[in-house]
Sequence to fold (222 residues):
Amino acid sequence: MPELETDTRVCDSAITLAFTVLGKRWNGMILGVLGGGSASFVGLRKAVSGISDTVLSERLSELTELGLVRRDVREGPPISVSYELTPSGVEIVPTIQELGVWAMRNLQPRD
Amino acid sequence: MPELETDTRVCDSAITLAFTVLGKRWNGMILGVLGGGSASFVGLRKAVSGISDTVLSERLSELTELGLVRRDVREGPPISVSYELTPSGVEIVPTIQELGVWAMRNLQPRD
Fold:
């Protein structure tokens, strides 16, 4: 059975790298929402239906650590905290929108 | 605090739909590997580093059910089973590759 011997493909390392972030639940949606402009924590939680405070907080920390999201604190009173995309984050938005277009064409429930 | 009242954005339904599939660990990598051509179960498991047999089997069933992957059985002996993308699956491949390009530009470890 030569297939076992010769089938030595590995997933492209670039794609693997992309999905270490985007293959984690909620991250694509958070980036997609922030692609529409900065948002508060509460605004994000409402926009990303089903996410909990704890998980949203974790994801925002991770995305900030990765350099895709920036936490913006404006002195008050009251102090206002919002989240926005960095240039690296902005750069993924058109591709995320393409995924959406694909999904609407291909993942709709069938009759 | 008007922000709470007016911040009523919701994540784009198309993006939400896309990430019901792609935000699930491994799916993007499986589609990416199959974008390079059909593969056997063993070939896929090797190509998607770290996935278990059980999870790969579940993901392939889900992706087949969604109409993105097709299971191709060739009569033997020995019977040969391989997995390949459907036209809907093929259509996402260029966008997945764009995610990879973005990742290489933006997610590399910094010095």
Residues 87-106 of chain B form the longest helix (20 residues). The radius of gyration of chain B is 18 Å. The mean pLDDT of chain B is 90.
